[in-house]
């Protein structure tokens, strides 16, 4: 795939994000043969375009790390993308559906490292040793594709549907919790919509960070200390509509909430 094609595909998803407009997935017509490797090149170009516009990377995110998400999205492999500074919403804050295309929310467990992690061969134990804090988080995903319908290369090229992140304020040392048995409930206007436990994320959320380090090592990149890392949805994602008050509780890790208008 030549540089022109990479630019064309990055522009295609980037414009859709800016204009809050659904597009037909890349693999439907534009470029059916898009491979996973090529899709990451498109993502890199999209990330570069955002950086050139003055946006800053907050941290990496993993996606499709749980059975619930694999089933819901009909794709079956972990992927990564990036959260940018203009996507951050404060805990207890308000978002407007009109700022997105068709937003959904999903609960996640976040990590902040005290040391960089460089693959290959990184294990969950390495991750836990290198972790400064774990924290509760919500991700707002907003696939630029019609009906959230995509293949793995499509969603990679679309920066893995990244659109928003809300970080909870509780920071815990990793050894004070068993993250795999941290329970999570997501309620909207007092009604429980989804539930899960940390183990839903590749058996333990630390496995997700290890996987990220090992995937990034293929590009000779590492997971950096100090950046918040999202490990992937614990439950399936829930559609948001105006009037929703979203409240997510995490066993031993506090809660995170926001309002939708
Ligand atoms: C892709 C993004 C997946 C996760 O946590 O699984 C993701 C999507 O579902 O649109 O962020
Ligand atoms: Mg996610």
TrEMBL record:
Q: EC number(s) for this protein?
A: 4.1.1.77
* Entry GO MF terms: 2-oxopent-4-enoate hydratase activity; 4-oxalocrotonate decarboxylase activity
Name the SUPFAM superfamilies for this protein: FAH
Read off the InterPro entries from this record. Answer: Fumarylacetoacetase-like_C, Fumarylacetoacetase_C_sf, Hydratase-Decarb/MhpD_sf
Write down any Gene Ontology CC term: cytoplasm
Q: Which UniProt keywords apply?
A: Lyase
| Domain Fumarylacetoacetase-like C-terminal, residue spans | 71-257
Source organism, top-level taxon: Bacteria
- Supply the PANTHER family for this chain: 2-KETO-4-PENTENOATE HYDRATASE (PTHR30143:SF0), ACID HYDRATASE (PTHR30143)
Name this polypeptide is given: 2-oxo-3-hexenedioate decarboxylase
Species of origin? Oceanobacillus polygoni
